[in-house]
Specification:
The chain is built from 8 helices and 5 strands, in the order βββββαααααααα. By secondary structure, the chain is α+β, with helices and mostly antiparallel strands.
């Protein structure tokens, strides 16, 4: 394995980008950020002296630019990245900056699609507070409820069913409903119960741990 490059001398432009660490780095000053090889970092700011301000999880700090390889000049859909990874802190920053919760990626997925698919309960809750397009379909015709049901994420399904405009029996391009895609008996039972009720009253919930 090649030796890591030397640390640049310390002495921006605000830009959202994602980078992958080429080498591990241990912070040597309080305002620096430690990370491991292969970690994904969100770049918040760059300067011309070789140091980038980055966020990893709920921590942020300066990192040597020559320790990371930029995988894309600019994230096309930063909120999607935050949603699928469960990065609550970065999601909150994007929401505060006014980034739309209804933006679509090339497959037609919204951030809510990704959070529902990954079972990121806290992210789903944050997105629902912004009143997103709850029944938005991707190019396969799947809604966030399809994704959550397919993943067996009971708590996420429960959150989605709490929305007044949710369509529980909506079909995708193959004619499948969320209930028919469910791999979880508990999720399927909840969807059937909700679908049989005109108001969804009596739906029961459950806890679902976030998973990476």
């Amino acid at each position: 394995m090649a030796a890591p490059p030397p640390r640049p001398t310390r002495p921006g432009k605000k830009e959202i980008a994602v980078v992958e660490a080429k080498f591990a780095y241990t912070a040597q000053n309080p305002d620096e950020l430690s990370f491991e090889e292969g970690d994904i970092l969100y770049v918040l700011q760059k300067d011309d002296a070789g140091w980038w301000k980055c966020r990893s999880g709920d921590k942020e700090g300066l990192v040597p630019a020559n320790y990371v390889g930029e995988s894309t000049v600019e994230i096309e859909n930063p909120m999607h990245e935050a949603a699928k990874r469960g990065n609550v802190a970065f999601l909150a920053e994007l929401l505060a900056a006014g980034v739309s919760v209804n933006g679509l990626d090339r497959a037609g997925n919204s951030p809510l699609h990704w959070a529902a698919r990954a079972g990121k309960t806290d992210v789903v809750r944050m997105l629902l507070e912004q009143k997103p397009a709850i029944n938005s379909k991707n190019k396969l015709g799947d809604t966030p409820l399809h994704n959550a049901a397919w993943g067996g994420h009971l708590a996420v399904v429960t959150l989605l069913l709490s929305q007044p405009d949710i369509q529980v029996n909506i079909k995708n391009n193959d004619g499948a409903t969320p209930q028919s895609l469910s791999k979880s008996d508990d999720v399927a039972a909840l969807l059937i119960q909700f679908g049989n009720s005109s108001s969804g009253a009596g739906a029961v919930g459950g806890e679902d741990e976030d998973s990476d």
